[in-house]
Amino acid sequence: MKNRLLIKLCCIIGAGTVLLFWMIDILSNQAEQSMSFIDEQYKQELQDYAKQAEDIYSKHGKDALDIWLEELQEKEQTWAAVAASNVVTVSDSDLRDKYVEGIKLGRSLDWMIHLYFDYNPIMDIPFTDKNTHFLIQLPQRMRPGKYYTHAGLAIKFALPLILLSLLSLVLYQHLMSPLRRLENATKQFSEGNFDVRINASLDSRDDELTALADTFDHMADRTSKLIASQRQMLSDLSHELRTPLTRMDMAVDFLEHQLDPKKAADRLRYEAANMRELVEDALTLAYLDTERPKLNNETFDLAELINVICEDSRFEYSNHTLIANLPEQAVIKNSSQRALGQAIENVIRNALHHTPLTKQVTVFLSKTDTLYSLVIEDEGQGVPEELLEEIFKPFFRVDKARTLSDAQRELKVGQKRNGFGLGLALAQRQIEAVKGNIKASNHYSHEGKILGLKISIELPIVSEYA
Question: Model-level pTM?
């Protein structure tokens, strides 16, 4: 699923927002409920006032009650009175006693006081006879909800701030945890630890940050392989150059001392050509490994290309037998004639190079619905099974101890050389660049004897590129 991180963040933020409003609503209601009732201390004071009023009225009469009410009103800065609730029916019907007893001229002390009303309600405390009531407008000092404003500010501002800060912390940790790993991995990679990877530590995730980790690991894999390959190539190249340079030094000494100057000049020419080809091939291989070019801009006849290569190879290896079984036409699209030509030529020349004069090399080209299959078989000594994949590595040779005799070198001066172990490595990179693949195997007789090496190349008829 795409945009997993976006969906996850939307769910977290959405759920957090709903939770925030829900908590604000619940806490606001609870705060209002808990702060909307008269404190027990004030309830007792009001009940004491009602008892005093009843005692004064019953013992000293109305005048004394009036004086006491005036003093109370002045003391509490409010209004107070005593009133009777004698209900008289107009008709002959009777009122139930429960109804008469429940008549209130004001609010009961147990009722809720609405905090959003500006005025204080009239409180009703009945006398013992239930028909006489002590009425008093709730004194301001007894009004509940003294800290309601502060509680509202805390609920509406402090609570969202705390919850949103926690939500931000959770999101920050969720986002920064893999980013910190990526930062540490990048730092380690820049310090030379090319084996560092981070995707293994993110198994529990599957979002855009995991994709970023995959990208980093892919980059680290490719970069580490390129660095290792370049280091190995530099080491191998320096090793390969030592021998021709030593021979060139010897040839120069021969020339200085006039010892067989013609042979020394031929040796210099041969070794210089060898070194030039070695450097050119090494640079080409480095370019293919580093740049990974996409060679997909040509349409041509593959059969004709292979036929030209075979004719050139027959001329170069005139003492060898090369048989080509090719169709009349094999059009290939979105490919590179130059890259394929060099790759196929290297493979065919490698086969001829390792095939005895009495043996032959055979080239087959066939077609399926989507692929061309090119098979080059030689009749040489083959390659040990455990080294079949190694032969595509730069500077690899099955028998590095084998060297050409002086007579053979003389014969091959001016010809293309194939002794550095770069031919098949270049062929593999060039074929991969046109979205093909190449593999090596031995072919056997019925008795199980190795008859030679077989190189199989598969090429798409039409290369597809993203």
Answer: 0.51
